[in-house]
Every structure is written in structure tokens, then in C-alpha cells.
Specification:
Elements (H helix, E strand, L loop, with lengths): L5 E3 H8 L3 H9 L7 E2 L5 E4 H16 L7 H20 L18 H4 L6
Antiparallel strand pairs: 1-3, 2-3
């Protein structure tokens, strides 16, 4: 006997943070698991399939950058802005591909909505 917990659309919306229309659009594109028709008017999703979808999205999002949360990464970049100021002021040689080796800068306070100072 199968004892899988089934989630109604409201629980799927709450669990994933996706809207109803986005869920159904993703189902149509085969990007989200389809629901199971429970009755003529009721569709539900196996909880394990919804959790597997969430797990796959987390894995895809973290891909190569699993080591640092985004806020920590942004704060590290802001810390390096002072060091980069000198580099931007002086001419730097081009790399082997003929591209500038200057890195783009990030205003961390503006990105995080903080007041400078």
C-alpha cells in the first residue's frame, strides 16, 4: 500500500513560492512534475516529487558556486573595491585574448539597500 502525502495546489504554491499560473505553464513545458487527478475536480502533487523539484532547482542554482552565500560574496566584493580603486586608476596590460583585465566593480551598499558610511 502506497502512503505518499499528496499536496493540493495551495500547498504546492506555498512550498515552491511559484504562482498557480507559473506552475501550470512549467508543467506545459515539462519543467515541473504534473499533478495527479484525485477526483473529477481535484488535482494533487506527490510531496516527494515537489521536494525533488525544489532540490533540483537548488542544485542547479548553486552549480559551481556552493562555497559562499550571495550576501557574503557581495560583501567580499565591496571590501575589494578599495583595493581595485588603485588598479582602475592605473593602466593595466591586456590579457592573452586582448581583453582588459580590469574587473567590474559593485556598489554593495546600493545593492543591499544600505546607506553608505
Amino acid at each position: 500500500m502506497v502512503s505518499e502525502k499528496m499536496l493540493p495546489i495551495s500547498a504546492v504554491i506555498e512550498t515552491t513560492g511559484l504562482s498557480r499560473s507559473m506552475i501550470y505553464a512549467m508543467i506545459a513545458r515539462s519543467e515541473f512534475p504534473p499533478g495527479v487527478r484525485m477526483t473529477e475536480r481535484r488535482v494533487a502533487w506527490p510531496a516527494s516529487e515537489v521536494q525533488a523539484y525544489i532540490g533540483s532547482r537548488i542544485a542547479a542554482a548553486r552549480g559551481e558556486r556552493r562555497h559562499a552565500p550571495i550576501v557574503q560574496t557581495l560583501e567580499t566584493a565591496a571590501q575589494g573595491q578599495q583595493d581595485d580603486a588603485h588598479d582602475r586608476a592605473s593602466a593595466r596590460p591586456l590579457n592573452d585574448e586582448g581583453e582588459s583585465s580590469l574587473r567590474p566593480t559593485i556598489d554593495i551598499d546600493r545593492l543591499l539597500g544600505r546607506k553608505p558610511g
